[in-house]
């Protein structure tokens, strides 16, 4: 018999009806209204969903508890969260341990190094059961439900627990059950860790409530946690040392609420005295009390329904199915087997959804956004203080928020940004005065500058570790918020003011250098050369933000005064330089790829225009090929989790599914711990950004739209020859679903949420059957055999099937360039494609984004290129592609660089 009747929730719910049957058993001595929480419940879910595969449960499970240690926390505890708190559940039987994190509980000091003062462990909560002779143990986190479970037997009694962290009710709920009446006894004892220097507090118990409260001295943070115990049957008593003991109960519910006096208010960042940053803010006691009392008035079923209605409405939008079956081995064994050849598509599905789960846990409206460790921290000295780093880590946290169809979760960062932005305005004026005073607005209208790092209390000034492009990278996140949702109220009220004022700063900061407008000083994140001029990182991000600001203004019909300045500056921002190795340069002084800095660096900042930006795409094929060269030369030597995750997306953007998949496999096989936390670099050292980034990478493999053409399955690896997904989000506010087998698409569905024009690219798509969901034939404009355009209607679904099979022609390889004895001639030769009927030859001069066709229908594998202007060009990129019987060019070609002798 299963110990828990578990709710079966579809990953892609279209409609959910929850049916509860319950009998209320209330202890006589617990006469308050909160006792309505205690119900023995059997609940089932009826699901209306035609996709059987979407009902597959994705879960982490184990046959023993997590070790009760910091190593057990990082490697095996189950993470949960609701934005208001993070929780790590250990699943112990003798003693359960639940570690609680609250993201504003911050300390600070002048110490440096990896572990330094910052985010502090809020509470260690222990539940003593003294069950030492257990059998049939199982611990589980069910991603479909957002609930974790523990179940086991002791002395003939079946014990079970259910845990969830509710965003709507702002509490963690723990329900304890026993199969035999009167068999449940336990002691609840929350504690305050790391009391001492800088932290004080106490724990007290009264009746059914334990209150934990104290102060973090540096910022004068008042914190409080409340723990309410509601048993069914038995006896309950509070002790003087802050514990509650329950004896001989049938079941019990524990409610947990936490809070501090922190508020998202600009006062925090504008006040220099750390002890006065929170001055005048309300003590957390009333807030936390209201959370507990409101939750206690609801039944367990109401709390569960509130949680799952909220959670499933987010999680259930997207399904990713590779045909994997649920494994019979626990998750720790599944992960251990993966790098040694036990490749598991279930783990690949699981890791994708796990990143979405973590984002739902850690980024909710009204709460602080996810930091380096998301919303989880067990230490008094957190890794890198659990800061917000804006040179990739914050952006990685939000990498999947739009493509993986969770756009409203970005609101958490919107609120945080709006809180620290006034401080950044002051910095902007300081920097313009310092670096380009002729452009200073004396009244302070100088926009805002981007930070390198921040925390909930401080956003310091410029660091040479990263250039000023961090601000425009933040602006890129805001632009994507509109671009994926197409909500003009979001554009007008939340996006445009941010990117316009970032462009205002940039427009005053850049200086004319040899006819182009460059950042000075400029740095490429964390590379060795710092405080230089015009790094590609800065220039690409500046370009993206200027471009998006101008585009936004046209959409909104704005005529703001500096728009004409942005328009005149845009072509002078010079975002791409192609180097002598054929690479996208990272530094303007760079010749060959490895001339400057670490060639194997974890950051790949010169390619942000490729991903997550839109500058480098299929409309700029020469730049796309140069980006590929940079990725090849960056190679696989990094063991940093987030860097591997970022490169999944970058390789997907150059349409190389095999390389993208290889990084995904490395990440899962070498960086993922037994609870799927990302081991940052093998310490173990948890950092959450790779978890989020891996989800974004898989989404890029499955669907792209950076050039406003929806391109599904453009980087599909051979190992994923069969599968499906539903609900991924594309630019233009299109929800896209796909089904494929033998590496070829069988069916696409596109739900138009805003009625935009649908540009759709896939081989032979113009010969497919395209209808609406009600069977009506759809009129479309054919750009070519592989791309169509459809004027959609908001609320309608467009179904594409009967797609003719295509056979890609293989690419040529090993292009060589030689000078001939004849002036103005260059000899090209290459290794043949196995199935080409001819070859086309292209050339891009210097930093040009596009190729020009210089020869076609070449049947041999060599060619003499003649051009009287050859000596005028210091550098040319040649590309040879194969042409098949159907006239289709090979997806890839072979390239080589010609350098003037």
**Strand sequence of the main sheet, in spatial order?**
3-8-9-10-11-18-15-14-13
The structural class is: alpha+beta
Oligomer: single chain
For the CA atoms, what is the radius of gyration?
29 Å
Report helical residue fraction.
10-25%
Strand composition percent: 25-35%
What is the helix tally?
16
Low-confidence stretches: 1-53
In whole angstroms, how far apart are the ends? Answer: 80 Å
The main sheet comes to:
9 strands, antiparallel
Nearest-integer average pLDDT: 93
Shape: globular
Number of strands: 40
Concise account of the structure shown:
The protein is an alpha+beta fold. Residues 1-53 have low confidence and may be disordered.
Outline the fold blueprint.
Blueprint: E1 16-24, E2 39-47, E3 59-62, H1 70-75, E4 78-81, E5 86-89, E6 95-106, E7 119-128, E8 134-142, E9 147-154, E10 157-166, E11 171-178, E12 184-191, E13 199-206, E14 209-216, E15 221-232, E16 235-238, E17 244-249, E18 251-260, H2 267-270, H3 284-296, H4 300-315, E19 319-321, H5 331-337, H6 345-362, E20 388-389, H7 393-397, H8 411-435, E21 453-454, H9 469-485, H10 488-509, E22 511-513, E23 516-518, H11 536-556, H12 563-569, H13 621-634, H14 641-653, H15 657-671, H16 689-702, E24 703-704, E25 711-712, E26 723-730, E27 734-741, E28 744-752, E29 757-761, E30 769-772, E31 781-784, E32 787-791, E33 797-801, E34 813-819, E35 825-831, E36 838-845, E37 852-858, E38 862-866, E39 875-883, E40 894-899
Antiparallel strand pairs: 1-2, 3-8, 4-5, 5-6, 6-7, 7-12, 8-9, 9-10, 10-11, 11-18, 12-17, 13-14, 14-15, 15-18, 16-17, 19-26, 20-21, 22-23, 24-25, 26-27, 27-28, 28-33, 29-32, 30-33, 31-32, 34-35, 35-38, 36-37, 36-39, 39-40
């Amino acid at each position: 018999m299963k110990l828990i009747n578990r709710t079966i929730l579809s990953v892609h719910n279209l409609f959910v009806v929850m049916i509860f049957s319950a009998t209320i058993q209330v202890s006589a001595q617990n006469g308050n209204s909160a006792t309505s929480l205690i119900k023995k419940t059997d609940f089932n879910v009826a699901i209306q969903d035609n996709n059987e595969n979407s009902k597959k449960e994705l879960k982490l499970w184990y046959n023993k508890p997590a070790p009760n240690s910091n190593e057990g926390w990082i490697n095996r505890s189950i993470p949960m969260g609701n934005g208001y708190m993070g929780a790590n559940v250990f699943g112990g039987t003798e003693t359960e341990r639940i570690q609680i994190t609250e993201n504003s509980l911050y300390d600070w000091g002048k110490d440096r190094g990896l572990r330094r003062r910052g985010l502090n462990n809020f509470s260690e909560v222990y539940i003593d059961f003294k069950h030492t002779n257990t059998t049939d143990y199982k611990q589980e986190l069910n991603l479909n439900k957002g609930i974790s479970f523990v179940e086991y037997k002791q002395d003939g009694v079946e014990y079970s627990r259910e845990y969830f962290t509710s965003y709507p009710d702002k509490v963690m709920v723990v329900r304890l059950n026993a199969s035999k009446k009167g068999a449940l006894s336990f002691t609840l004892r929350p504690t305050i860790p790391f009391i001492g220097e800088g932290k004080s507090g106490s724990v007290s118990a009264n009746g059914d409530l334990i209150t934990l409260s104290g102060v973090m001295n540096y910022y004068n943070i008042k914190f409080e946690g409340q723990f309410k115990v509601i048993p069914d049957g038995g006896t309950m008593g509070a002790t003087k040392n802050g514990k509650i003991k329950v004896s001989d109960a049938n079941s019990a519910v524990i409610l947990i609420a936490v809070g501090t006096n922190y508020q998202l208010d600009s006062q925090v960042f504008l006040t220099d005295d750390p002890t006065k940053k929170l001055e005048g803010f309300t003590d957390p006691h009333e807030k936390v009390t209201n959370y507990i009392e409101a939750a206690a008035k609801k039944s367990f079923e109401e709390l569960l329904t509130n949680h799952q209605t909220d959670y499933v409405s987010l999680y259930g939008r997207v399904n990713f199915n590779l045909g994997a079956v649920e494994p019979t081995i626990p998750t720790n064994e599944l992960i251990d087997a993966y790098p040694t050849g036990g490749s598991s598509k279930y783990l690949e599905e699981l890791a994708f959804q796990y990143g979405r789960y973590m984002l739902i846990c850690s980024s909710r409206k009204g709460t602080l956004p996810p930091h380096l460790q998301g919303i989880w921290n067990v230490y008094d000295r957190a890794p890198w203080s659990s800061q917000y780093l804006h040179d990739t880590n914050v952006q990685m946290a939000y990498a999947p928020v739009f493509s993986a169809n969770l756009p409203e979760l970005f609101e958490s960062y919107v609120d945080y940004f709006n809180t620290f932005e006034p401080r950044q305005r002051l910095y902007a004026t300081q920097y313009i005065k310092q670096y380009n005073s002729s452009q200073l607005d004396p009244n302070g209208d100088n926009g805002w500058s981007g930070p390198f790092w921040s925390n909930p209390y401080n956003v310091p000034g410029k660091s040479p570790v990263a250039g000023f492009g961090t601000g425009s990278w933040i602006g890129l996140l805001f632009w994507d918020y509109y671009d994926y949702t197409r909500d003009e109220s979001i554009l007008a009220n939340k996006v445009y003011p941010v990117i316009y004022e970032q462009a205002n700063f940039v427009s005053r900061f850049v200086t004319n250098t040899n006819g182009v407008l460059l950042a000075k000083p400029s740095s490429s994140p964390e590379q060795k050369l710092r405080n230089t001029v015009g790094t590609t990182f800065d220039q690409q991000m500046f370009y993206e933000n200027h471009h998006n600001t101008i585009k936004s203004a046209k959409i909104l019909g704005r005529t703001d005064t500096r728009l004409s300045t942005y328009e005149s500056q845009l072509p002078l921002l010079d975002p791409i330089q192609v180097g002598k190795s054929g690479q996208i340069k990272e530094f303007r002084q760079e010749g060959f790829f490895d001339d400057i800095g670490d060639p194997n660096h974890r950051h790949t900042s010169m390619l942000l225009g490729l991903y997550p930006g839109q500058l480098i795409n299929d409309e700029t094929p020469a730049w796309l090929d140069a980006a590929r060269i940079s990725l090849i030369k960056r190679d696989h030597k990094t063991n940093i989790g987030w860097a591997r995750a970022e490169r999944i997306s970058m390789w997907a953007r150059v349409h190389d599914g095999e390389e993208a998949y290889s990084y995904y496999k490395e990440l899962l096989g070498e960086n993922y711990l037994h609870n799927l936390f990302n081991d940052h670099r093998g310490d173990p050292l948890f950092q959450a950004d790779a978890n989020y980034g891996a989800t974004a990478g898989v989404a890029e493999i499955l669907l792209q739209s950076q050039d406003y053409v929806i391109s599904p399955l453009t980087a599909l690896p051979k190992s994923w020859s069969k599968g499906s997904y539903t609900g991924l989000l594309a630019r233009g506010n299109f929800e896209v679903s796909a089904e494929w087998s033998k590496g070829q698409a069988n069916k696409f569905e596109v739900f138009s949420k805003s009625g935009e024009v649908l540009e759709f690219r896939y081989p032979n798509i113009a010969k497919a059957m395209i209808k609406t969901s009600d069977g009506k034939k759809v009129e479309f404009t054919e750009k070519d055999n592989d791309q169509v355009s459809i004027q959609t209607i908001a609320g309608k679904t467009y179904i594409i099937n009967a797609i003719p099979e295509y056979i890609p022609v293989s690419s040529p390889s090993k292009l060589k360039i030689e000078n001939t004895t004849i002036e103005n001639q260059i000899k090209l030769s290459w290794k043949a494609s196995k199935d080409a009927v001819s070859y086309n030859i292209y050339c891009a001069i210097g930093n040009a984004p596009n190729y020009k066709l210089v020869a076609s229908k070449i049947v041999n594998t060599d060619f003499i290129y003649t051009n009287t202007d050859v000596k005028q060009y210091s550098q040319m990129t040649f590309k040879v592609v194969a042409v098949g019987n159907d006239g289709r060019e090979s997806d890839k070609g072979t390239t080589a660089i010609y350098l003037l002798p």
